[in-house]
Design brief:
By secondary structure, the chain is α/β, with parallel strands linked by helices. It folds into 4 domains: 2-174, Rossmann fold (3-Layer(aba) Sandwich); 185-279, no CATH class; 342-463, no CATH class; 469-558, no CATH class. The chain has 19 helices and 24 strands. A hairpin with a 2-residue loop joins β14 (233-241) and β15 (244-251). α4 (204-214) packs across α5 (216-229), α12 packs parallel to α13 (447-457) and α14 crosses α15 (492-503). The chain is elongated, with a radius of gyration of 31 Å. The two termini are 49 Å apart.
Protein backbone atom coordinates (compact mmCIF):
# COMPACT_ATOMS: atom_id res chain seq x y z
CA UNK A 1 0.00 0.00 0.00
CA UNK A 2 1.13 3.52 -0.85
CA UNK A 3 -0.38 6.71 0.56
CA UNK A 4 -1.02 9.09 -2.36
CA UNK A 5 -2.55 12.15 -0.74
CA UNK A 6 -4.08 13.38 2.51
CA UNK A 7 -6.44 16.24 3.29
CA UNK A 8 -7.20 17.60 6.78
CA UNK A 9 -9.88 20.14 7.71
CA UNK A 10 -10.86 21.90 10.94
CA UNK A 11 -8.08 20.50 13.10
CA UNK A 12 -6.32 23.02 15.35
CA UNK A 13 -4.86 25.73 13.06
CA UNK A 14 -5.83 23.82 9.88
CA UNK A 15 -9.06 24.99 8.26
CA UNK A 16 -8.40 23.13 5.01
CA UNK A 17 -4.98 21.81 4.01
CA UNK A 18 -6.15 20.83 0.54
CA UNK A 19 -4.99 17.48 -0.80
CA UNK A 20 -1.33 17.17 0.22
CA UNK A 21 0.59 14.95 -2.20
CA UNK A 22 2.57 12.32 -0.30
CA UNK A 23 5.83 11.25 -1.96
CA UNK A 24 6.47 7.52 -2.20
CA UNK A 25 9.60 8.02 -0.08
CA UNK A 26 9.94 11.37 1.66
CA UNK A 27 7.54 14.25 2.32
CA UNK A 28 8.75 17.23 4.34
CA UNK A 29 6.80 20.01 6.03
CA UNK A 30 9.15 22.96 6.62
CA UNK A 31 8.40 26.16 8.46
CA UNK A 32 8.75 28.03 11.69
CA UNK A 33 7.27 26.86 14.99
CA UNK A 34 3.50 26.91 15.53
CA UNK A 35 2.49 27.17 11.87
CA UNK A 36 0.73 23.80 11.48
CA UNK A 37 3.48 21.33 10.58
CA UNK A 38 2.91 19.09 13.59
CA UNK A 39 -0.86 19.57 13.50
CA UNK A 40 -1.04 17.87 10.10
CA UNK A 41 0.77 14.66 11.04
CA UNK A 42 -0.86 14.68 14.48
CA UNK A 43 -4.29 14.70 12.81
CA UNK A 44 -3.38 11.58 10.83
CA UNK A 45 -2.29 9.81 13.98
CA UNK A 46 -5.32 10.94 16.00
CA UNK A 47 -7.86 9.83 13.38
CA UNK A 48 -6.42 6.32 13.46
CA UNK A 49 -5.55 6.25 17.15
CA UNK A 50 -8.60 4.34 18.33
CA UNK A 51 -11.24 2.73 16.16
CA UNK A 52 -13.90 4.08 13.85
CA UNK A 53 -17.67 3.99 14.23
CA UNK A 54 -18.91 0.58 13.06
CA UNK A 55 -21.66 1.34 10.57
CA UNK A 56 -23.67 -1.83 11.12
CA UNK A 57 -23.99 -1.18 14.86
CA UNK A 58 -26.66 1.43 15.54
CA UNK A 59 -25.38 3.95 18.04
CA UNK A 60 -21.85 2.65 17.84
CA UNK A 61 -19.02 5.11 18.12
CA UNK A 62 -15.34 4.39 17.77
CA UNK A 63 -12.88 6.15 20.05
CA UNK A 64 -10.65 8.91 18.72
CA UNK A 65 -7.88 11.13 20.01
CA UNK A 66 -9.76 14.17 18.65
CA UNK A 67 -11.77 15.76 21.44
CA UNK A 68 -12.68 19.13 19.91
CA UNK A 69 -16.38 19.96 19.49
CA UNK A 70 -16.04 21.21 15.91
CA UNK A 71 -16.14 18.45 13.34
CA UNK A 72 -12.72 17.63 11.88
CA UNK A 73 -12.29 15.61 8.70
CA UNK A 74 -9.55 13.57 7.12
CA UNK A 75 -9.46 12.24 3.56
CA UNK A 76 -6.73 9.76 2.69
CA UNK A 77 -6.14 8.36 -0.81
CA UNK A 78 -4.23 5.07 -1.04
CA UNK A 79 -3.02 2.75 -3.79
CA UNK A 80 -3.32 -0.94 -3.03
CA UNK A 81 -0.93 -3.58 -4.31
CA UNK A 82 -2.11 -7.03 -5.40
CA UNK A 83 -1.62 -8.67 -2.01
CA UNK A 84 -3.60 -5.89 -0.29
CA UNK A 85 -6.42 -6.21 -2.81
CA UNK A 86 -6.71 -9.99 -2.48
CA UNK A 87 -6.78 -9.61 1.28
CA UNK A 88 -9.30 -6.82 1.77
CA UNK A 89 -11.63 -7.38 -1.21
CA UNK A 90 -12.29 -11.02 -0.37
CA UNK A 91 -16.00 -11.76 -0.72
CA UNK A 92 -16.79 -8.71 -2.85
CA UNK A 93 -17.65 -8.89 -6.53
CA UNK A 94 -14.62 -8.13 -8.71
CA UNK A 95 -16.39 -5.11 -10.24
CA UNK A 96 -15.74 -3.37 -6.90
CA UNK A 97 -12.02 -4.14 -6.86
CA UNK A 98 -10.30 -0.82 -7.38
CA UNK A 99 -6.61 -0.23 -6.77
CA UNK A 100 -6.98 3.41 -5.71
CA UNK A 101 -9.30 4.11 -2.77
CA UNK A 102 -10.15 7.19 -0.71
CA UNK A 103 -11.35 7.01 2.89
CA UNK A 104 -13.37 9.94 4.27
CA UNK A 105 -13.46 10.24 8.06
CA UNK A 106 -15.09 12.68 10.46
CA UNK A 107 -14.23 13.11 14.12
CA UNK A 108 -15.32 15.20 17.07
CA UNK A 109 -15.79 14.84 20.82
CA UNK A 110 -13.61 11.76 20.94
CA UNK A 111 -15.45 9.73 18.29
CA UNK A 112 -14.47 8.87 14.71
CA UNK A 113 -16.95 8.14 11.91
CA UNK A 114 -15.98 6.64 8.56
CA UNK A 115 -18.50 8.31 6.26
CA UNK A 116 -17.51 7.38 2.73
CA UNK A 117 -15.20 5.27 0.60
CA UNK A 118 -14.49 6.53 -2.90
CA UNK A 119 -12.95 4.72 -5.84
CA UNK A 120 -10.40 6.47 -8.03
CA UNK A 121 -10.43 4.83 -11.50
CA UNK A 122 -7.36 5.58 -13.58
CA UNK A 123 -9.26 7.27 -16.40
CA UNK A 124 -12.46 8.54 -14.78
CA UNK A 125 -13.63 10.76 -11.97
CA UNK A 126 -13.79 9.33 -8.42
CA UNK A 127 -17.14 7.90 -7.36
CA UNK A 128 -18.62 6.63 -4.11
CA UNK A 129 -18.36 2.92 -3.45
CA UNK A 130 -19.76 3.00 0.08
CA UNK A 131 -21.48 5.91 1.78
CA UNK A 132 -23.38 6.38 5.00
CA UNK A 133 -24.52 9.19 7.28
CA UNK A 134 -25.05 9.40 11.00
CA UNK A 135 -28.17 11.11 12.39
CA UNK A 136 -28.21 13.91 14.94
CA UNK A 137 -28.15 11.33 17.71
CA UNK A 138 -25.23 9.74 15.86
CA UNK A 139 -27.13 6.56 15.00
CA UNK A 140 -26.08 5.04 11.72
CA UNK A 141 -28.10 4.55 8.56
CA UNK A 142 -27.51 1.38 6.61
CA UNK A 143 -24.46 1.53 4.41
CA UNK A 144 -25.38 2.13 0.79
CA UNK A 145 -23.35 0.34 -1.88
CA UNK A 146 -23.31 2.21 -5.19
CA UNK A 147 -23.13 0.08 -8.32
CA UNK A 148 -21.41 2.38 -10.82
CA UNK A 149 -22.33 0.19 -13.79
CA UNK A 150 -26.09 -0.07 -13.15
CA UNK A 151 -26.65 2.99 -11.02
CA UNK A 152 -28.47 0.84 -8.47
CA UNK A 153 -28.10 1.35 -4.73
CA UNK A 154 -28.02 -1.80 -2.64
CA UNK A 155 -27.57 -2.50 1.03
CA UNK A 156 -24.14 -3.53 2.19
CA UNK A 157 -23.41 -7.18 2.88
CA UNK A 158 -21.31 -8.70 5.62
CA UNK A 159 -18.50 -8.84 3.06
CA UNK A 160 -18.84 -5.08 2.64
CA UNK A 161 -18.39 -4.53 6.36
CA UNK A 162 -15.40 -6.86 6.39
CA UNK A 163 -13.86 -4.85 3.55
CA UNK A 164 -14.40 -1.58 5.42
CA UNK A 165 -12.81 -2.98 8.58
CA UNK A 166 -9.85 -4.45 6.72
CA UNK A 167 -9.17 -1.24 4.79
CA UNK A 168 -9.35 0.97 7.88
CA UNK A 169 -7.08 -1.25 9.93
CA UNK A 170 -4.66 -1.76 7.02
CA UNK A 171 -3.99 1.98 7.16
CA UNK A 172 -4.17 2.21 10.95
CA UNK A 173 -1.62 -0.58 11.44
CA UNK A 174 0.79 0.99 8.95
CA UNK A 175 1.17 4.24 10.94
CA UNK A 176 4.11 4.93 13.22
CA UNK A 177 4.21 8.28 15.04
CA UNK A 178 7.43 9.65 16.55
CA UNK A 179 6.80 12.76 18.60
CA UNK A 180 9.11 15.74 19.00
CA UNK A 181 8.55 15.41 22.74
CA UNK A 182 11.12 13.43 24.64
CA UNK A 183 10.54 9.79 23.71
CA UNK A 184 10.25 7.44 26.68
CA UNK A 185 9.77 3.70 26.19
CA UNK A 186 8.45 1.76 29.16
CA UNK A 187 11.11 -0.67 30.46
CA UNK A 188 10.61 -4.25 31.64
CA UNK A 189 8.44 -5.32 28.71
CA UNK A 190 7.00 -8.85 28.65
CA UNK A 191 8.92 -11.30 26.50
CA UNK A 192 6.63 -12.14 23.59
CA UNK A 193 7.71 -13.09 20.08
CA UNK A 194 6.92 -9.91 18.12
CA UNK A 195 8.80 -8.35 15.21
CA UNK A 196 6.39 -5.48 14.53
CA UNK A 197 6.56 -2.10 16.24
CA UNK A 198 3.29 -0.55 17.33
CA UNK A 199 2.13 2.96 16.44
CA UNK A 200 4.41 4.73 18.92
CA UNK A 201 7.29 2.25 18.91
CA UNK A 202 6.44 1.66 22.56
CA UNK A 203 7.14 -2.09 22.32
CA UNK A 204 10.73 -1.47 21.16
CA UNK A 205 12.33 -3.56 23.95
CA UNK A 206 10.16 -6.54 23.09
CA UNK A 207 10.74 -6.28 19.32
CA UNK A 208 14.48 -5.89 19.78
CA UNK A 209 14.66 -8.96 22.01
CA UNK A 210 12.76 -10.95 19.37
CA UNK A 211 15.15 -9.85 16.61
CA UNK A 212 18.18 -10.65 18.76
CA UNK A 213 17.00 -14.20 19.30
CA UNK A 214 15.09 -15.05 16.10
CA UNK A 215 16.76 -12.92 13.41
CA UNK A 216 20.30 -12.35 14.53
CA UNK A 217 21.44 -11.04 11.13
CA UNK A 218 18.92 -8.18 11.45
CA UNK A 219 20.06 -7.48 14.99
CA UNK A 220 23.70 -7.33 13.84
CA UNK A 221 22.79 -4.93 11.03
CA UNK A 222 20.92 -2.63 13.42
CA UNK A 223 23.73 -2.71 15.98
CA UNK A 224 26.40 -2.01 13.34
CA UNK A 225 24.53 0.94 11.83
CA UNK A 226 23.66 2.33 15.26
CA UNK A 227 27.33 2.31 16.26
CA UNK A 228 28.22 4.16 13.04
CA UNK A 229 25.79 6.90 14.02
CA UNK A 230 26.83 6.90 17.69
CA UNK A 231 30.50 5.84 17.68
CA UNK A 232 30.76 6.17 21.48
CA UNK A 233 28.54 3.08 21.76
CA UNK A 234 30.36 -0.25 21.83
CA UNK A 235 27.50 -2.75 22.08
CA UNK A 236 23.71 -3.12 22.33
CA UNK A 237 22.45 -5.68 24.83
CA UNK A 238 18.99 -7.14 25.36
CA UNK A 239 18.80 -8.19 28.98
CA UNK A 240 16.29 -10.57 30.56
CA UNK A 241 14.85 -10.22 34.03
CA UNK A 242 12.38 -12.99 34.73
CA UNK A 243 9.72 -12.69 32.02
CA UNK A 244 10.67 -9.16 30.96
CA UNK A 245 13.34 -7.64 28.74
CA UNK A 246 15.17 -4.33 28.35
CA UNK A 247 17.63 -2.71 25.94
CA UNK A 248 20.93 -1.55 27.42
CA UNK A 249 23.85 0.24 25.77
CA UNK A 250 27.52 -0.32 26.53
CA UNK A 251 29.71 2.73 25.92
CA UNK A 252 33.43 2.83 25.23
CA UNK A 253 35.60 3.31 28.32
CA UNK A 254 32.60 2.56 30.52
CA UNK A 255 31.98 -1.04 31.54
CA UNK A 256 28.54 -0.69 33.11
CA UNK A 257 25.64 -1.06 30.66
CA UNK A 258 23.24 1.90 30.64
CA UNK A 259 19.46 1.40 30.21
CA UNK A 260 18.27 2.84 26.90
CA UNK A 261 15.73 5.05 28.68
CA UNK A 262 18.61 6.89 30.35
CA UNK A 263 20.47 7.51 27.08
CA UNK A 264 18.39 10.22 25.43
CA UNK A 265 15.47 10.39 23.02
CA UNK A 266 17.69 10.66 19.95
CA UNK A 267 19.07 7.17 20.50
CA UNK A 268 15.59 5.75 21.10
CA UNK A 269 14.30 7.31 17.88
CA UNK A 270 17.24 6.00 15.83
CA UNK A 271 16.68 2.46 17.13
CA UNK A 272 12.98 2.69 16.26
CA UNK A 273 13.83 3.82 12.72
CA UNK A 274 16.39 1.02 12.31
CA UNK A 275 13.86 -1.58 13.45
CA UNK A 276 11.38 -0.21 10.92
CA UNK A 277 13.91 -0.17 8.08
CA UNK A 278 14.40 -3.94 8.17
CA UNK A 279 10.65 -4.59 7.98
CA UNK A 280 9.28 -5.76 4.63
CA UNK A 281 5.82 -4.41 5.43
CA UNK A 282 5.40 -0.84 4.20
CA UNK A 283 4.68 1.67 6.96
CA UNK A 284 3.77 5.35 7.06
CA UNK A 285 6.26 6.91 9.48
CA UNK A 286 5.28 10.31 10.88
CA UNK A 287 8.39 11.90 12.42
CA UNK A 288 7.97 15.24 14.17
CA UNK A 289 11.13 17.37 14.12
CA UNK A 290 13.82 14.65 14.09
CA UNK A 291 16.52 17.27 14.63
CA UNK A 292 15.23 18.01 18.16
CA UNK A 293 17.26 15.29 19.89
CA UNK A 294 19.92 14.46 17.29
CA UNK A 295 23.29 15.97 16.50
CA UNK A 296 23.78 16.89 12.84
CA UNK A 297 25.56 13.74 11.71
CA UNK A 298 22.92 11.53 13.36
CA UNK A 299 20.16 13.64 11.82
CA UNK A 300 21.66 13.21 8.35
CA UNK A 301 22.05 9.46 8.96
CA UNK A 302 18.30 9.22 9.59
CA UNK A 303 17.62 10.81 6.22
CA UNK A 304 20.15 8.52 4.54
CA UNK A 305 18.24 5.54 5.94
CA UNK A 306 15.01 6.68 4.29
CA UNK A 307 16.60 6.21 0.87
CA UNK A 308 17.13 2.49 1.54
CA UNK A 309 13.67 1.84 2.92
CA UNK A 310 10.36 0.71 1.44
CA UNK A 311 8.46 2.93 3.88
CA UNK A 312 6.95 6.36 3.40
CA UNK A 313 8.22 9.10 5.69
CA UNK A 314 6.57 12.41 6.57
CA UNK A 315 8.93 14.72 8.46
CA UNK A 316 8.25 18.10 10.01
CA UNK A 317 11.24 20.37 10.44
CA UNK A 318 12.85 23.76 10.59
CA UNK A 319 16.27 22.20 10.02
CA UNK A 320 18.18 23.39 6.92
CA UNK A 321 19.82 19.93 6.76
CA UNK A 322 16.51 18.26 5.90
CA UNK A 323 15.13 21.16 3.85
CA UNK A 324 18.18 20.98 1.58
CA UNK A 325 18.68 17.21 1.78
CA UNK A 326 19.64 16.01 -1.74
CA UNK A 327 16.93 13.46 -2.45
CA UNK A 328 13.67 13.27 -4.33
CA UNK A 329 10.94 14.47 -2.01
CA UNK A 330 7.80 16.54 -1.74
CA UNK A 331 8.70 19.68 0.17
CA UNK A 332 5.91 21.84 1.59
CA UNK A 333 6.40 25.29 3.04
CA UNK A 334 3.98 25.73 5.95
CA UNK A 335 3.07 29.26 6.96
CA UNK A 336 0.50 30.80 9.27
CA UNK A 337 -1.77 33.55 7.99
CA UNK A 338 -4.08 35.19 10.53
CA UNK A 339 -3.95 32.08 12.71
CA UNK A 340 -4.61 29.58 9.91
CA UNK A 341 -2.15 27.14 8.38
CA UNK A 342 -1.31 27.33 4.68
CA UNK A 343 0.62 24.71 2.69
CA UNK A 344 2.56 25.38 -0.51
CA UNK A 345 4.35 22.69 -2.54
CA UNK A 346 7.84 23.86 -3.51
CA UNK A 347 8.84 21.12 -5.95
CA UNK A 348 7.66 22.98 -9.03
CA UNK A 349 10.31 25.70 -8.73
CA UNK A 350 13.35 23.61 -7.74
CA UNK A 351 14.85 24.07 -11.21
CA UNK A 352 14.65 27.82 -10.89
CA UNK A 353 16.38 27.65 -7.52
CA UNK A 354 19.20 25.63 -9.05
CA UNK A 355 19.51 28.04 -11.94
CA UNK A 356 20.17 31.06 -9.75
CA UNK A 357 21.98 29.26 -6.93
CA UNK A 358 19.35 29.38 -4.18
CA UNK A 359 18.49 26.57 -1.80
CA UNK A 360 15.20 25.85 -0.06
CA UNK A 361 16.76 26.69 3.29
CA UNK A 362 17.40 30.23 2.06
CA UNK A 363 13.78 31.20 2.46
CA UNK A 364 11.74 28.47 4.11
CA UNK A 365 12.03 29.82 7.65
CA UNK A 366 11.79 33.58 7.18
CA UNK A 367 9.27 36.30 6.37
CA UNK A 368 11.44 38.62 4.26
CA UNK A 369 14.40 38.12 1.90
CA UNK A 370 17.29 40.51 1.23
CA UNK A 371 19.37 39.41 -1.77
CA UNK A 372 22.95 40.73 -1.91
CA UNK A 373 25.79 40.46 -4.41
CA UNK A 374 28.54 38.81 -2.39
CA UNK A 375 29.97 37.41 0.82
CA UNK A 376 30.97 40.82 2.18
CA UNK A 377 27.42 42.16 2.12
CA UNK A 378 26.06 38.86 3.45
CA UNK A 379 28.42 39.15 6.44
CA UNK A 380 28.32 42.85 7.30
CA UNK A 381 24.69 43.72 6.57
CA UNK A 382 23.25 41.87 9.61
CA UNK A 383 25.79 43.67 11.80
CA UNK A 384 24.77 47.06 10.43
CA UNK A 385 21.05 46.33 10.82
CA UNK A 386 21.55 44.99 14.34
CA UNK A 387 23.25 48.24 15.32
CA UNK A 388 20.09 50.03 14.22
CA UNK A 389 17.87 47.58 16.16
CA UNK A 390 16.70 45.75 13.06
CA UNK A 391 17.91 42.27 13.97
CA UNK A 392 16.84 39.01 12.36
CA UNK A 393 14.91 37.92 15.45
CA UNK A 394 12.56 40.89 15.47
CA UNK A 395 12.20 41.30 11.72
CA UNK A 396 12.52 37.64 10.58
CA UNK A 397 14.55 38.21 7.42
CA UNK A 398 17.13 36.12 5.63
CA UNK A 399 20.04 37.38 3.54
CA UNK A 400 20.85 35.47 0.36
CA UNK A 401 24.26 35.81 -1.27
CA UNK A 402 24.17 35.51 -5.07
CA UNK A 403 27.99 35.20 -5.10
CA UNK A 404 28.41 37.72 -7.89
CA UNK A 405 25.61 38.97 -10.09
CA UNK A 406 26.98 38.34 -13.59
CA UNK A 407 24.63 39.94 -16.10
CA UNK A 408 21.72 40.32 -13.68
CA UNK A 409 22.29 44.07 -13.39
CA UNK A 410 24.24 44.74 -16.61
CA UNK A 411 22.34 43.51 -19.68
CA UNK A 412 18.78 44.73 -20.00
CA UNK A 413 17.51 41.39 -21.34
CA UNK A 414 19.16 39.53 -18.44
CA UNK A 415 17.71 41.99 -15.94
CA UNK A 416 14.17 41.50 -17.23
CA UNK A 417 14.59 37.72 -17.27
CA UNK A 418 16.00 37.50 -13.74
CA UNK A 419 13.45 39.93 -12.35
CA UNK A 420 10.76 37.63 -13.72
CA UNK A 421 12.45 34.53 -12.26
CA UNK A 422 12.74 35.98 -8.77
CA UNK A 423 9.19 37.27 -8.87
CA UNK A 424 7.98 33.77 -9.79
CA UNK A 425 9.96 32.19 -6.97
CA UNK A 426 8.90 34.39 -4.12
CA UNK A 427 5.30 34.73 -5.29
CA UNK A 428 4.89 30.95 -5.78
CA UNK A 429 6.31 29.45 -2.61
CA UNK A 430 3.60 30.75 -0.36
CA UNK A 431 -0.04 31.69 -0.55
CA UNK A 432 1.14 34.90 1.11
CA UNK A 433 4.12 35.81 -1.14
CA UNK A 434 7.43 36.39 0.64
CA UNK A 435 8.60 40.02 0.28
CA UNK A 436 12.10 40.30 -1.18
CA UNK A 437 14.49 43.02 -2.28
CA UNK A 438 17.89 43.26 -3.98
CA UNK A 439 20.59 45.41 -2.40
CA UNK A 440 23.23 46.23 -5.03
CA UNK A 441 26.32 48.40 -5.35
CA UNK A 442 26.10 51.51 -7.51
CA UNK A 443 29.52 50.72 -9.02
CA UNK A 444 30.16 52.96 -12.06
CA UNK A 445 26.57 53.00 -13.22
CA UNK A 446 25.23 56.21 -14.68
CA UNK A 447 21.81 57.57 -13.75
CA UNK A 448 20.55 56.19 -17.06
CA UNK A 449 21.75 52.67 -16.18
CA UNK A 450 20.31 52.97 -12.68
CA UNK A 451 16.93 53.90 -14.14
CA UNK A 452 17.05 50.85 -16.43
CA UNK A 453 17.65 48.62 -13.39
CA UNK A 454 14.79 50.24 -11.51
CA UNK A 455 12.48 49.82 -14.50
CA UNK A 456 13.31 46.08 -14.64
CA UNK A 457 13.10 45.33 -10.90
CA UNK A 458 10.63 48.05 -9.88
CA UNK A 459 10.47 48.41 -6.09
CA UNK A 460 12.41 45.15 -5.67
CA UNK A 461 15.85 46.79 -5.93
CA UNK A 462 17.75 49.09 -3.56
CA UNK A 463 20.91 50.73 -4.92
CA UNK A 464 23.62 52.11 -2.64
CA UNK A 465 24.25 55.83 -3.08
CA UNK A 466 27.99 55.21 -2.86
CA UNK A 467 29.95 52.98 -5.23
CA UNK A 468 30.12 49.97 -2.87
CA UNK A 469 29.61 49.11 0.76
CA UNK A 470 33.32 49.67 1.57
CA UNK A 471 32.85 53.39 0.80
CA UNK A 472 30.95 53.61 4.09
CA UNK A 473 33.92 52.12 5.99
CA UNK A 474 36.37 54.95 5.21
CA UNK A 475 36.37 56.25 8.78
CA UNK A 476 39.82 56.98 10.33
CA UNK A 477 39.14 55.93 13.94
CA UNK A 478 37.70 52.51 13.04
CA UNK A 479 40.51 51.78 10.56
CA UNK A 480 43.17 52.80 13.09
CA UNK A 481 41.54 50.52 15.68
CA UNK A 482 41.53 47.64 13.19
CA UNK A 483 45.22 48.17 12.43
CA UNK A 484 45.98 48.26 16.14
CA UNK A 485 44.61 44.77 16.75
CA UNK A 486 46.93 43.67 13.93
CA UNK A 487 49.86 45.12 15.92
CA UNK A 488 50.17 48.19 13.69
CA UNK A 489 50.58 51.58 15.33
CA UNK A 490 48.75 54.17 13.27
CA UNK A 491 46.88 57.20 14.53
CA UNK A 492 43.47 58.20 13.31
CA UNK A 493 45.08 61.39 12.00
CA UNK A 494 47.52 59.35 9.89
CA UNK A 495 44.63 57.36 8.42
CA UNK A 496 42.61 60.50 7.78
CA UNK A 497 45.49 61.97 5.74
CA UNK A 498 45.90 58.76 3.75
CA UNK A 499 42.17 58.64 2.94
CA UNK A 500 42.19 62.30 1.88
CA UNK A 501 45.26 61.77 -0.30
CA UNK A 502 43.64 58.84 -2.11
CA UNK A 503 40.29 60.60 -2.53
CA UNK A 504 42.09 63.55 -4.10
CA UNK A 505 43.53 61.32 -6.88
CA UNK A 506 40.50 61.98 -9.07
CA UNK A 507 42.39 61.32 -12.30
CA UNK A 508 43.50 57.83 -11.24
CA UNK A 509 41.51 55.38 -13.38
CA UNK A 510 42.03 52.50 -10.93
CA UNK A 511 40.39 54.48 -8.13
CA UNK A 512 37.82 56.28 -10.28
CA UNK A 513 36.92 54.04 -13.19
CA UNK A 514 34.44 56.48 -14.73
CA UNK A 515 35.67 59.79 -13.40
CA UNK A 516 34.63 61.63 -10.26
CA UNK A 517 31.80 63.91 -9.18
CA UNK A 518 31.73 63.27 -5.43
CA UNK A 519 34.95 61.53 -4.25
CA UNK A 520 33.52 59.66 -1.23
CA UNK A 521 30.69 58.32 -3.43
CA UNK A 522 32.61 57.56 -6.63
CA UNK A 523 35.95 56.18 -5.39
CA UNK A 524 36.49 52.44 -5.32
CA UNK A 525 36.27 52.10 -1.54
CA UNK A 526 37.67 48.59 -1.33
CA UNK A 527 40.79 49.71 -3.21
CA UNK A 528 41.29 52.64 -0.81
CA UNK A 529 41.30 50.17 2.08
CA UNK A 530 43.61 47.79 0.21
CA UNK A 531 46.13 50.60 -0.46
CA UNK A 532 46.07 51.78 3.16
CA UNK A 533 46.66 48.24 4.43
CA UNK A 534 49.38 47.73 1.82
CA UNK A 535 51.24 50.71 3.30
CA UNK A 536 51.46 48.70 6.53
CA UNK A 537 52.39 45.42 4.79
CA UNK A 538 48.94 43.95 5.40
CA UNK A 539 46.33 42.52 3.03
CA UNK A 540 42.83 43.86 3.43
CA UNK A 541 40.28 41.04 3.88
CA UNK A 542 36.92 42.32 2.65
CA UNK A 543 34.92 39.87 4.76
CA UNK A 544 36.88 39.56 8.03
CA UNK A 545 38.02 43.19 8.18
CA UNK A 546 34.68 44.42 6.87
CA UNK A 547 32.98 42.58 9.74
CA UNK A 548 35.18 44.43 12.25
CA UNK A 549 34.66 47.84 10.65
CA UNK A 550 30.88 47.36 10.46
CA UNK A 551 30.90 46.52 14.18
CA UNK A 552 33.05 49.39 15.47
CA UNK A 553 32.74 52.26 13.00
CA UNK A 554 30.86 55.36 14.13
CA UNK A 555 27.21 54.38 13.71
CA UNK A 556 26.40 57.61 11.88
CA UNK A 557 28.61 56.42 9.00
CA UNK A 558 26.16 53.57 8.39
CA UNK A 559 22.90 55.53 8.67
CA UNK A 560 22.47 55.81 4.89
CA UNK A 561 22.53 51.99 4.52
CA UNK A 562 20.15 51.44 7.44
CA UNK A 563 17.70 54.05 6.15
CA UNK A 564 17.78 52.49 2.69
CA UNK A 565 16.65 49.11 4.06
CA UNK A 566 14.49 50.27 6.96
CA UNK A 567 11.34 50.91 4.93
CA UNK A 568 11.46 47.40 3.43
CA UNK A 569 11.88 45.69 6.82
CA UNK A 570 9.36 47.80 8.69
CA UNK A 571 6.63 47.91 6.06
Amino acid sequence: MIINSIRVTNYKSITDSGYIEIHNKLTVFAGKNNVGKTAFIEAIQKFFEGSYNTPNKVGGGGSSGITQREKATLNIVVSLDDSDMFSIYEGLTEELWYGSIELCLEAFEGRTFLTEIKCHPTSAKPFSLFKWNYLNDRNIHEVAVFDKLTGNIEYATDASYDFIDKLYFLIKNSIVFLSSNRTSIMPNQPIVANEKLDTYGSNLHNVFHTLHNNKEEFFEYIQGYFIKIFPDVKQIRTTVDGNTTNINLVFKNFEKAIPLNECGSGMVQVLIILCLIISDKKRLILFDEPHSFLHQSAEKAIYDLTLHSSHQFIFTTHSPILINYPSLKNLYLVTNSNGYSEYALLNEIHRIFAEIGLTNGDFALCEKIIIVEGKTEETVLPIILNRYYMGKVGYSYHIINLEGTGNQFIKKSAMNRNASIHSKIFNSISLAPIPYVFLVDRDERSEERINIIRDAYQEKVLILKRREIENYFLEPNAIASLLKINNIKASAKDIELKIKSLLDMVDDKTLYLNGCNVPIEDVKGSMVLELIFHDYNLIYDKVAHGKYLASYIDIDCLKEIADLIRNFLVN
